[in-house]
Amino acid sequence: MGKNIIVAGAGHGGLTAAYHLAKSGYNVTVYEHAAQESDLGYEWEDFFDARTFDEAGLPAPETGMIPKVPISFYGPDPDVEPIRQTFEAGEVEMHMNRKELCAHLIRITRDVGVQFVFGCTIYAPILIGNRIVGIKTSLGDFTADLVIDACGVDSPLRANLPAYLGIQKTLKKFEYIYAYRAYFNRLEGFENVKNEYKTYFVDDGKTGLTWVVTTEKTVDLLIARFEPFGQDEIDRMYKIFKADNPHLGDKLVLGGQITKIPLRRPLAILVADGYAAVGDSACMTVPIAGSGIANSIRAGKILADTVLFDRNEEYSAVTLWKYQRTFFDKIGGSMGLIDMGKGMLLDLKKKDFEFFFNNKILTSEDISFNTNETSAKAMFSHFTPSIIVDRMKKIGANRDLIRRIGGVATRAGRLKLILTRMPDRYNREDVVNWAAKYDRLYNVAPDK
């Protein structure tokens, strides 16, 4: 014991691992780019699984548990009724401001002895042979027995790893999204407007995601695009939203930033000698929704358990491979299937969404799975053979759509097979070959 652990970046997954390792007697230091603790976290609020803290063995915040908020999905035709989620009475979820969540995680990690160094820009990993032994930063070089990469979507550690390790260094187009999130005041005089979570499948033909969430005092506006955008696009979309939501005010209450977020399945390889990636550094967001809080925190606990299991304190790719296999078994494999669903949605045109809504291909029952579950099994368990046959009959008139759905189903079957063939033990050649097969399902070429 007494081994030194570096957590590069104060991400949710990295802080979770830091908590458990420091509590078990490890010397853990978090190096963070932000100048001070109050700078951490986006200025927005998020919903996530109410069981996350218990499952990760973390002290839970005193507040944040609220009744579940159903989502309404709107199609291109305003005259067609939206599809609305329904839940059983009593279902709850966590609803927290991101800054408050970061402050809570830092507070509990400090309580168990984790050290923090703020204002530290991380440049690259330090390698001796094939092993990562530390980090190069604006404050100098720091070494450790293990480096946990929680630097985020554009991690400079991951980007500067040797290509032969097989870890994808940079993300490709459609594997990340630019999101603008802002909270505006809610105008009075619109008493007939109810509190609602509106997600728009298609706004005006642009590729991306949009929503308007109306609460008692604010209107939460999200504009997300796979291409960079600026104020002109924000102003244009604001006018579109205003026409459909006249209670949307013009006073910015919170947020207003554009943030880059990974929107894909997890990386094919998460570990190397002396290195493990977690959270956004490993692309652990839900590939359609974009939130990665629950997945990242759970992954941080899996990583910590793996490190603690390494009785010889090697922290090599061989001993850390247990982290990868456990994560994929519990979480990552399902994210891969959901990513395929995202790919199909990106391929759909306005007419396809109109077909889905007008012909009731999707129903309220289909989307009312318990959203505390982010696994593909939970999302698709409702679709019994009889329901699938019924929906395919409805889709039957659209041969092009049948073809595309069939293609996704075929690839999903191949993914399931590939996941069962993940190497039981880490051997670099075997792991890199396996990762190439996994990524080829998503048309991603390996880094050179």
Would you write up a description of this structure?
- Among the domains are: 4-65 and 95-170 and 264-330, FAD/NAD(P)-binding domain (3-Layer(bba) Sandwich), CATH 3.50.50.60; 176-262.
- The protein is 35% helix and 23% strand.
- Helix 1 (12-23) runs parallel beside helix 3, helix 1 packs parallel to helix 6 and helix 7 packs antiparallel against helix 11 (399-420).
- It is built from twelve helices and 19 strands.
- It has helices at residues 12-23, 52-55, 98-111, 156-159, 231-244, 293-309, 317-347, 350-358, 376-380, 385-395, 399-420, 428-440, and strands at residues 4-8, 27-31, 45-48, 65-67, 71-74, 83-84, 92-97, 115-117, 122-128, 131-137, 140-143, 146-149, 176-186, 196-200, 208-214, 218-225, 248-262, 271-272, 275-277.
- The two termini are 38 Å apart.
- The chain is α/β, with parallel strands linked by helices and 448 residues long.
What is the gist of this entry?
By secondary structure, this protein is of the alpha/beta class.
Beta-strand segment tally:
19
Helix content: 25-40%
CATH superfamily membership of the domain at 4-65 and 95-170 and 264-330: FAD/NAD(P)-binding domain
> Poorly predicted ranges (pLDDT <50, ≥5 residues)?
none
Write down the CATH topology of the domain at 4-65 and 95-170 and 264-330: FAD/NAD(P)-binding domain
Q: Which radius of gyration do the C-alpha atoms yield?
A: 22 Å
Q: Determine and state the CATH class of the domain at 4-65 and 95-170 and 264-330.
A: Alpha Beta
